[in-house]
Design brief:
about 300 residues; Arc Repressor Mutant, subunit A; D-Maltodextrin-Binding Protein, domain 2; 3 domains; 5-stranded mixed sheet; 9 helices; LysR family transcriptional regulator
Length: about 300
């Protein structure tokens, strides 16, 4: 059984005329009759009742007509999706993002891309910065949005800065600084600080970025680092220290009886979020996504 046989069968079934069906495909009536007979042999059932003056579908023919149409439609859809995928308009895209980044306007980019390319299936992975970096390098993920502090350079990877975020201080409500509307970084020099670990072992060692910056400012020894903001906030709520976190991790977290969020007067945009992908990744949908991202950044920078 092949698609051409199904096309011949549907044509005969819809016209109930072998001659008309043969003309549609520019073949002889004998040729189309042989193909229908071969199809009947394959199915083990008669599809038509033939007489000198008319052609009718058998009960089996009625059933098979619906199935044949569905198979032909599915085949057409498959061909169309292959053509779209070859042009980067369909296919799949595996996206990773650092924990906490879902609280930003990141979803707007995803929504806009989905509207323009609804046939691209997107899957998402939320992980720490180091694991995302490795997944981009191995192409397990097509593109990742991760903390770029300490990322360094890698010949296989491309990176594009998405945005830089300032740090905010998070303190326990009973802390002496809890009622301050803002803080200077130097006011925290005697505090026990809690930081997110944005390390990359292969490209600069542990604690690159924020920790190195604080060391240059003669800030105190950090007592704890964690790969996710939730763990750090738990420690703050237990009055175990003062957290310095990227502002995006706190976007939808209101002041509560367990936490006080205080902006830093310095306004230092210390945390860089970058899009990272492997240059050798052949996924055409990745190229479409990168162009969409570039257009979105251009519109934002121009005030559009």
């Amino acid at each position: 059984m092949n698609l051409k046989q199904l096309e011949y069968f549907v044509a005969v079934a819809e016209t109930l005329n072998f001659t008309k069906a043969a003309r549609k495909f520019y073949i002889s009536q004998t040729a189309i009759t042989k193909q229908i007979m071969a199809l009947e042999d394959r199915l083990g059932a008669k599809l038509f009742i033939r007489s000198k003056h008319r052609v009718e579908l058998t009960p089996a023919g009625f059933v098979f007509l619906q199935e044949a149409k569905a198979i032909l439609n599915r085949a057409e859809e498959a061909v169309e999706r292959v053509h779209l995928a070859a042009g980067g308009i369909a296919g799949s895209l595996n996206i990773g993002f650092v924990k906490g980044y879902e609280k930003t306007s990141f979803s707007n980019l995803i929504l806009d891309f989905h509207k323009d390319y609804p046939h691209v299936f997107m899957s998402f992975t939320r992980n720490n910065a180091e694991e995302l970096y490795r997944a981009a390098e191995s192409r397990d993920l097509d593109i990742v949005f991760t903390i770029a502090n300490g990322l360094g350079t890698h010949e296989e990877l491309e990176r594009r800065t998405v945005r830089r975020y300032p740090l905010v201080a998070v303190v326990y409500p009973g802390h002496p600084l809890a009622d301050r509307p803002s803080l200077r970084l130097e006011e925290l020099q005697h505090e026990q600080l809690l930081l997110m670990d944005a390390s990359y072992r292969e490209t600069g060692g542990r604690g690159a970025g924020i920790k190195d910056f604080l060391a240059n400012q003669s800030m105190p020894m950090i007592i704890q680092q964690s790969r996710d903001a939730e763990s750090i906030l738990l420690m703050v709520s237990a009055d175990m220290g003062v957290a310095l976190l990227p502002s995006y991790t706190m976007k939808y977290l209101n002041q509560s009886r367990h936490l006080r969020i205080i902006p830093l007067e310095d306004g230092i945009e210390m945390v860089e979020i970058a899009a990272v992908w492997n240059k050798s990744n052949p996924n055409p949908a990745l190229g479409m996504f990168l162009r969409k991202m570039a257009n979105a950044q251009q519109q934002k920078s121009s005030g559009g």
